[in-house]
Amino acid sequence: MGIDRPDDADEPPDKHSDRPSGRAPAETRYRQEYDADLRAAALQERTESAGRSEPGARSKPPGEQTENDQQPPPGTSWEETAELSRWMWTEYKRRWPPEERPPVDRSKDAPGSWHGDSGQVLEPADNARIEAACDRIADREEKMISPALRAIESQDPHRHLVGFEKCLKGRDRIKEKVCGTINDYRRSPEQAVSLVPDAIRYTFQYEEARYTQGVRADIARLQDRGFRLNTLKNYWSDDQYKGINSQWIEPVSGQRFEVQFHTRISFEAKEITHGAYERLRSGQKPDEFEQMVLEAFQKKVTAEVPVPSRAADIPDYPKRESDAR
Known about the structure:
Elements: H1 31-53, H2 78-95, E1 114-115, E2 121-122, H3 124-153, E3 159-162, H4 171-185, H5 189-194, E4 201-206, H6 211-224, E5 228-234, E6 244-249, E7 256-263, H7 264-280, H8 288-303
Parallel strand pairs: 4-7
Antiparallel strand pairs: 1-2, 3-4, 5-6, 6-7
Helix pairs in contact: 2-7, 7-8
């Protein structure tokens, strides 16, 4: 579970199990039956369309069928998979609604301290030092790193940065991450913040056919700009996540930042499964059955993501000794 994805806000759970009148009843088919129905409907539509477009066409007897004629019907499109996956996630949330937490009582907090939603606390002095470190990160992003990424983006019109307006991680999320390292590893607030690898994050999205050559070219462009590659992890062979994540260092300030490389579909799959990923890595671990459901959901969505040609050949840096995620 090593991948740290963007902190997307999850949808609020349904507060009422009863559906309003006029809406369709909850889906009662098993997932396999639902998939089969979708595939059958799609196949029927393609068959009827072919019949309409070729009114004089006749069915070929078995002896005249070509190899292409004997291929199994194609699977559902990504759009169908995405729609089904969102429905599955809605049903999951009905089965396992998020626990309602009482609001955090901050009435007795010292002025200038920070109190996180999960109970973490920063004393005023440490909080002030982390705020100052976050100010420096925001300044480096605005003046040094983002302009360079925009310049790199302009060098190839066939791909673009997505989610650019959210490239800075929220300060509360940074504080949640560094609280443990300050308390458990006796790091200074500045040291703890400097080790957050994705306080700044960018995502390049490519056309499928241009993905591999585009990623290789952009890695070279980042290096030409003087950024130092710290790590690169290729997850195109993974069964619960598809894409490439890389971490870089700006040489003058030492600021770390992350760059992810996706296709449109792999990025959308990541967004769809983000809630499952967050639940699996939460402090309150799901029980064995819920964990199995969440992992199966991620695998189901990820299995439908097309892998661009030779994308899996882009090497990790440094070479991974294990495929831990």
